[in-house]
Write a structure and sequence with these properties.
The chain has 3 domains: 290 residues, Methylamine Dehydrogenase, Chain H (7 Propeller); 86 residues, Immunoglobulins (Immunoglobulin-like); 76 residues, no CATH class. The longest helix has 26 residues. The chain has 526 residues and is an alpha+beta fold. A 5-stranded mixed beta sheet has the order 7-6-5-4-29, with no helix packed on it. Strands 16, 17, 18, 19 and 20 form a 5-stranded antiparallel beta sheet that branches. Strands 32, 33, 35, 36 and 37 form a 5-stranded antiparallel beta sheet that branches. 21% of the residues lie in helices and 40% in strands. The radius of gyration is 29 Å and the shape is elongated.
């Protein structure tokens, strides 16, 4: 018994003696194009650098899987992509794709890898069965990125000066947008609303609005921009300028630019934001080094330097994301929701869980004190008749990761026979009924008068609603009569009560004025 206690004490002492970052290490994977290796850097220790042979020639592009299991490296001269196992540091599969693969991106669920090839083809690797599909997209493809929200794939064509947009579901080209000369690097904002394209031949950057495919006016940076990375909050884009050894920090709100000079003859190319957003890592091709710069002040003098091997490129996202994934919301009882998610990191201090009510609501923090390794949460005593949406992110002293996927569950509804709108439209979940419900929750329930009106309505409406529900003609008439109220509610939800009241007043005045004039014209003299 005593010997067992002694062993346990020794093991505990060893664990306590280990450095703190032993359990919270973030690694970056940097392809070195000249010596056909991938350097693995420990971001917490600039002396801890190892090397992997990706079994190909001229490794160039890089992308990590969303769950942090694998890293994919394109070998430009051997027309292949290496799949590297994160745990073992070995190449487990080599995919032979089209000619001169450069950019690499992974689908949000990790089942597909998209490879931009300079022969003009997009090679699509199915990681579930290792099959490869080739799609002719343009003349010479370079960078590739995936929108996590709209299921769109974005590819830069650096000879046609275009951004090609491909639908993920059927791999159809759905748009071709003109950008600047020789577009190279590309990145999508975490929210999926903006796409940033680096135009190497024009010394500019183009910002595209995802919803409308509108291309901004060119944003001037410095010489020969190459790579781009967007901060976790989606506010800034960092661009490497290979031609004059600098990076440009661009505000995605007002498109203002701040230039940060780097070391002379450094040749910056690849760039990526750390998983927790506190540092930007710049791959210096000429200097054979990676610089870690704090995003809080962009001070190059305090940057940490990692010495890697010959001619590093690092074109793409060379960090494994620590973002939680596979968030699932499940209804429990009538108004409780259980949540679960995958913890993809050992670097977090805890998690922050956020929730919103209805699809147009705003997220707010449910709990930001969830401990390390938490993978579930129970949310109880929620309202009836509502959709609750959730997202989660990991955090530590450096900052927060990106958010997980969003999932929702519907709480059960109470007796809804008293709702005239529901009786008229036949379903509680019809869009028109949802508009009225959101108007009730957003503008009536928060004040005393509104609550009184709702209370009176609930008390008086059930007989009328039940009667209307049994007669099709009355249901039709009720739907027509509710149109003005639904329109007013929609305007109020989107533009505010003041604009809605002003517009309604104007319409009423115009109606009566028009009616009076028509009456004057049609009145016959005695």
């Amino acid at each position: 018994m005593q010997s067992r206690l002694t062993i346990k004490f020794i093991l505990l002492a060893i664990i306590l003696a280990l450095p703190a970052n032993t359990w919270a290490v973030i690694y970056g994977y940097i392809p070195n194009s000249a010596d056909n290796t991938v350097s693995v850097i420990n971001t917490a220790d600039d002396t801890d650098i190892s090397s992997i042979n990706p079994l190909g020639t001229n490794p160039f592009g890089v992308a990590a899987s969303p769950t942090g299991d694998y890293v994919y490296v394109s070998n430009r001269e051997s027309n292949s992509v290496a799949k590297i196992d994160r745990q073992t540091g070995t190449v487990v599969t080599t995919y032979f794709v089209n000619t001169n693969p450069v950019g690499v991106a992974v689908s949000p669920d990790g089942t597909e890898v998209y490879v931009a090839c300079q022969a003009g083809y997009l090679s699509v690797i199915d990681t579930t069965d290792n099959s490869i599909t080739q799609i002719l997209v343009g003349t010479s493809l370079f960078g590739v990125a995936v929108n996590p929200d709209s299921e769109s794939i974005y590819v830069t064509d650096d000879t046609d000066n275009r951004l090609r947009i491909i639908r993920q579901s059927d791999l159809e080209i759905i748009a071709s947008l003109e950008v600047g000369s020789a577009p190279k690097g590309i990145a999508v904002s975490p929210s999926g609303t903006k796409i940033v394209v680096v135009n190497s031949g024009a010394n500019t950057v183009s910002v595209i609005t995802a919803a409308t495919n509108e291309v901004s006016a060119p944003i001037t940076v410095e010489n020969n921009p190459f790579g781009v990375a967007i901060t976790n909050d989606g506010i800034y884009a960092y661009v490497t300028n290979t031609g004059n050894d600098s990076i440009s920090k661009i505000s995605l709100n007002d498109h203002s630019v701040v230039h940060v000079p780097l070391d002379p003859d450094s040749g910056p190319q690849g760039i990526a934001i750390s998983p927790y957003g506190d540092q930007v890592f710049v791959v210096n091709n000429t200097a054979n080094a990676v610089k870690a710069i704090n995003t809080a002040d962009d001070d190059i003098t305090s940057a940490t330097t990692f010495a890697v091997e010959t001619s590093p490129v690092g074109f793409g996202k060379f960090f494994f994301p620590d973002t939680p994934s596979n968030l699932t919301a499940t209804l429990v009882g009538k108004n409780g929701i259980d949540l679960s998610w995958n913890d993809n990191t050992d670097s977090e201090d805890g998690f922050t869980l956020e929730r919103r009510k209805y699809i147009n609501g705003s997220f707010f923090v449910v709990d930001d004190t969830l401990e390390t390794n938490t993978t579930s949460y129970s949310d109880r005593d929620l309202g009836h008749n509502a959709n609750y949406y959730y997202r989660v992110k990991a955090h530590n002293d450096a900052g927060s990761t990106l958010y997980s996927n969003i999932d929702f569950a519907q709480t059960e509804r109470e007796d809804i026979s008293c709702f005239i709108a529901t009786a008229a439209h036949g379903s509680y979940w019809e869009p028109q009924v949802m508009i009225l419900r959101e108007f009730r929750d957003s503008f009536l329930m928060p004040n005393r008068v509104g609550k009184l009106l709702v209370k009176c309505y609930y008390r008086l409406s059930p007989p009328a609603a039940n009667f209307i529900a049994r007669h099709d003609n009355l249901r039709f008439a009720a739907r027509i009569s509710l149109v003005p109220l639904i329109g007013f509610s929609w305007l109020t939800l989107h533009y505010g009560i003041a604009i809605s009241l002003a517009l309604a007043t104007g319409l009423i005045i115009a109606f009566f004025f028009t009616d009076k004039r028509l009456g004057d014209h049609t009145r016959k003299p005695l």
